[in-house]
Amino acid sequence: MITETIYLDFDKKVSLTSYLLDTSEEMKTFKQRPAVLIFPGGAYKFCSDREAEPIAAAFLAEGYNAFILRYSLNEDSVFPQPLNDAEKALSLLRENAKKYNIMCDKIAVVGFSAGGHLAAALGTMGSVRPNALVLGYPCILSSTSKILASPVPSLEKEVDKKTPPCFIFSTCEDKTVPVENSLEFARALNKNNIPFEMHIFTYGQHGLSLAKAHTANGNRDYVNSDFSEWFNMCVSWLEKIFI
C-alpha cells in the first residue's frame, strides 16, 4: 500500500491523504479501481480519526482506493469554505486519476455527521459532483447549526437532477443529529427521482462509525452489531451503482 498526504491549503491545515492499493500482475483487472473520498465528522470543529483511517481501511479491503479530506475547521469553516475544499479535492482526484490508479467516473464521497453535510453539499451544490454519495447520520438541516462551528445551509432544499445516487444510514435514537435530517434529504431525493437506499436502525447513538470495537475507543456504546451492517450493505449498493 502507498500512502501520501498533500496540503490543499497549508495555512488552514486542509489536507488530502491517499491510501492506494498496490498493483499486481496477478490482479491485472484491478489496475484502475473505484475510489472513496472520505469526509470525517466532528461538527466542523475537528475531523474525527474514528471516521477517517478505519473507514479507508475497510474500503481498501473491498478493492477501493481511498482518500481522506481534512477540511477547513472552526473559524475557517464558514460556508462555503469547506465546500471549496471538497471541490478542490474531488477535482484533484479526477485530474490525477491515472496517477492514483482510480476510475474518474467511479468516485463515491463518504461523509459522517458534519462530514455528511459537506458530502451532501458537494453532491447538491458542488461545481463538480461525485458519482455516488454515502451519508452516515448526516447533518442536513440548518437547525443542526447550533452544534456546529458555523451556520450551515439546509441541503434538502438544494437537491437537483444532477445530485448523484445516495446511500443513507442513521438511527432512531440519535439525539445529536435527529433522524429527521436523513428523512428530509431522502424525501427531496425521491421528489427529484434520484436513486437512493436508506437504512434507519432502531438503536444506536450518534457517531458510531463502523460500530466495531476498533473504532469504539473503549466505549461500549460505540459497538453495535446491527448498525455495523451498514458497511456491507453500502458495498453491495456501490457495486450495483458502479456496474
- The top-level CATH class is Alpha Beta
Helicity level, as a percent range? 25-40%
What's the helix-strand series? EEEHEHHEHEEHEH
Strand composition percent: 15-25%
CATH architecture: 3-Layer(aba) Sandwich
Instruction: Report the C-alpha radius of gyration, rounded.
Output: 17 Å
Shape: globular
Q: Name the strands of the widest sheet in spatial order.
A: 1-2-4-3-5-6-7-8
Mean pLDDT: 96
Number of helix segments?
6
Number of domains: 1
Largest sheet report: 8 strands, mixed
What class, by secondary structure content? alpha/beta
Low-confidence runs: none
The CATH fourth-level homologous superfamily: Alpha/Beta hydrolase fold, catalytic domain
Terminal Cα span? 25 Å
CATH fold-level topology = Rossmann fold
DSSP E strands, number: 8
Layout of strands and helices, then pairs:
Elements: E1 2-9, E2 14-20, E3 33-39, H1 53-60, E4 65-70, H2 81-95, H3 97-100, E5 102-112, H4 114-125, E6 132-136, E7 166-171, H5 180-191, E8 196-201, H6 230-241
Parallel strand pairs: 3-4, 3-5, 5-6, 6-7, 7-8
Antiparallel strand pairs: 1-2, 2-4
